Every structure is written in structure tokens, then in C-alpha cells.
Amino acid sequence: MKSKLIHEGEQKTYALILEKGDEVVQELTQFAKQHGLAASHFTAIGALKNAVLGFFERERRDYKKIPVDEQVEVLSMIGDIALSRGEPKLHAHAVLGKADGTACGGHLLQACVWPTLEVVLTESPRHLRRKLDEETGLALIDLSAGENG
Amino acid sequence: MKSKLIHEGEQKTYALILEKGDEVVQELTQFAKQHGLAASHFTAIGALKNAVLGFFERERRDYKKIPVDEQVEVLSMIGDIALSRGEPKLHAHAVLGKADGTACGGHLLQACVWPTLEVVLTESPRHLRRKLDEETGLALIDLSAGENG
Amino acid sequence: MKSKLIHEGEQKTYALILEKGDEVVQELTQFAKQHGLAASHFTAIGALKNAVLGFFERERRDYKKIPVDEQVEVLSMIGDIALSRGEPKLHAHAVLGKADGTACGGHLLQACVWPTLEVVLTESPRHLRRKLDEETGLALIDLSAGENG
């Protein structure tokens, strides 16, 4: 993955270009840690050689894995980065397009890029924090702290 | 729903976190009215316990309702807020992911969040206005007024 | 297509409203050339009366065409504009919703708007450049030049 800061203000915008063979969750999480991202959001398009999507099952309190073992277009990837136990945590959902044009999608668990994934990420100057939700076992963004505006 | 201003410049960025049971159109419209939003755009991901989508039927000049009566991932929600008769009006389209990974979607008429919906909204300093389009009966964004750049 | 600058800072935000009969790739490319866009990203929603989507076939090193000959909702359109041989080049992926609520999508080759397409585009002050990738024959965004941050 390569990165370029395309706007530097109080709010920063990065272009992140993932390359053949890059693992999406890993690369974006590593970038987030290196740059101390605490309140980012992003969109992306590109293509993958395979992926594992998730669907959250309420009863199991866990993600059912949906493997996608074929070349797909990334029609849409939308996500955010917030702090979870003090570390940047990625949350992304993807819509993937198959060779026949049909679309599938889910929570992004794993994705291997081929040949490119073009991400535009905006980092805001404040923080978002995740907190364990007892009912689901998920770390949800929590705005109940005092600093919210 | 809780909100946090994560960037305050001439253009503002809000994180809006909807919680279990929140009705999306209602919560976002109420926020837009309270904050006088007049030219906003947003993206969101999360999950819903049910929704009603719409498909605009040209002949009927109205939306056909597509009920989604199951837990779904919000793979993508993209929308904007513009003024219609002086009041902020929400326009959002959603792509939803089912348990088997298939995707469906439409114009967002109704959506009940479970357990979270993470919205990042940008409010611009100028105005967008909707105006009735006679042919369709829809209020479309109209940039024909003098102030356009 | 009509345009309005809704935020003018070092980074600019435009609302671009496409109208009945407008061809999406053509209109956005023309706007990009007129305004010298060199590092833009955008999202859009709306509806089309028909479209041609593409799926990149690795063996053929070309896009397979997927015609969509019916009225569809644009559930999501995400894209960027970068320079290719010194000229602004559009890259967009779309998720389309059919009358029964099913979703399809692909690389956007052609799309005829009806009745509206609402695009919000952000232009950043720096440049992104595409460069021919020998293996695929595609012009991919290349951040290997010296100026990357």
C-alpha cells in the first residue's frame, strides 16, 4: 500500500492505494496505527481476488463467515476508524460485484486486492471511541462521554 | 441517536450514531431541522432489524414499497440533505446485505436500527434547494437560481 | 448538468446535479476538464434509465460489458478523478437497484440519467496520477513518485 496526503488542514485527506496481493484490513489498520487515526471515515473502489464477508448473527453474537472465492469488483467500500481500548480499529462494509453483475456484500473480515483498491480517507481532529455493548458483545461507537457536541 | 462534531471549520463534520430501535429517516430529519442543515451529504454503515425501501415507478409517479422484514447489514447508505419549501429534507439510498450475502437496495423510506448505524455527515456553508419537477412529481435539487457557481 | 460550489476552501466541494438524459461519464469528465480536477473523489445517488456496467476480465485484460436496459435506482456511485497522460480521468463504480429490490453493479462504462443524479464531489489541492500497469493494461493510480506523503 502507498499513501499520499492530498489535503492537509485541521482535517486531513489521504489517498491510499492498495496493490496486488495487499490484505485490506491489515494494511488499513497498520496505516491507522502508524498515523494515530482516531476519527476517520473513508470510501473505496477497486477489485479483489477474494474476500471473506461477515453477517452478524444475533443469536450467536458473532459474524457468520461468507467466503467469496472469485475475482470481484469492489463496487463500494465504506468505513470508519475509531479507538477501541486506545487502539485504532477499522470498521468497513463492502458491496462486491461478480462477473454476471450481481452484487453481494457484508462486514469486511478479509480481502485480498487485485489489481488495485483506491481509498480516500478523511481524518478528523477529534476522537471517536468504541465501547463494549453487553447485549451483542460488539464494540460500538460510544458518544455518551462528556466531550460530545 | 447521539451526535458529535468531529471537525468544525467553515464546513462541519458530524458523527451521528444511531442506536437500537432508532428510526433512521426520523432521527436524521430531526437532527437536520435542529441544526438548520441546508447542504449536507453523508455516508453510513451499520445494521437494521427491518426496513422499507422504495423503487420509483415512472408511470405511477410514486415509490413502490419493498419491505425488508429481516435483520440486514447496511452495506452502504449514501444521502444528502437539501431545503424543500424552506425545511431540511433527507434523501438517502441504501444497499442492504442479507444473511446469505446477497444485496438488495432502494430509496430509503423507513429503517429501524439494530444495533448501530454509524453516519458521518458533512455540512457545507451554502444552500441546496429542491423544487417540484412537474413530470415526475418529485422535488429535485434545483441549481438554476442565480447564486450557482 | 448543473454545478454549484458549496464549499470553497483549500479543498473545494461541488454539488453536481445531472438531469434527464444526461450521460454520466461524459458530463463528469467534461466538468473535470473544465475545472482542471486532478485529485477528486465523489459519491452520488439518483436514478438511471439505462446503463452499461463493466466487469474486468483478467484473461482478456478488458471489461466484459453488462448492459442494464431498464429504469434503476443508483443506490451508490463512488468514484475518483485523477490525471492520466495529463488529462482528468474518471473512475466510478455503481450499485444499481432494480424494481424488485435486487442489486447489481460494476465499473461504470455508460449511464443515462432519469430523472436526476445528485453528485457531491470534493477536489483536493494536490495531484493523483495514473500510470499504465503492464500486467493488466489498466492505468492505475501511481503514488511511487517523489512527492508522496
Topology:
The structure is a homotrimer of 149-residue chains.
Chain A: E1 2-8, E2 12-19, H1 24-34, E3 39-57, E4 62-68, E5 72-84, E6 87-97, E7 103-123, E8 129-132, E9 139-141
Oligomer: homotrimer
Largest sheet of chain A: 9 strands, mixed
Structural class determined from secondary elements of chain A: mainly beta
Uncertain regions of chain A: pLDDT < 50 for 5+ in a row? Answer: none
Gyration radius of chain A, in Å: 16 Å
The helicity of chain A comes to: under 10%
Can you tell me the overall shape of chain A? flat
> What is the string of helix and strand elements of chain A?
EEHEEEEEEE
Helices of chain A, by number, come to: 1
Distance between the termini of chain A: 35 Å
Q: Which chain pair has the greatest contact?
A: A-B, 46 and 34 residues
| Average pLDDT over all residues of chain A | 96
Could you please describe the fold and organization of this structure?
The structure is a homotrimer of 149-residue chains. In chain A, a hairpin with a 5-residue loop joins strand 6 (87-97) and strand 7. The radius of gyration of chain A is 16 Å and the shape is flat. Chain A has 149 residues and is mainly β. Chain A has one helix spanning 24-34; strands at 2-8, 12-19, 39-57, 62-68, 72-84, 87-97, 103-123, 129-132, 139-141. In chain A, strands 1, 2, 3, 4, 5, 6, 7, 8 and 9 form a nine-stranded mixed sheet that branches. Chain A binds chain B through residues 9-11, 39, 41, 43, 53, 55-58, 64, 66, 68, 76, 78-80, 91-95, 102-107, 122, 124-126, 128, 133, 135-136, 138, 140-144, 147-149, and chain B through 2-9, 13, 15, 17, 20, 43-45, 47, 71, 73-76, 95, 97-103, 114-116, 118, 120.
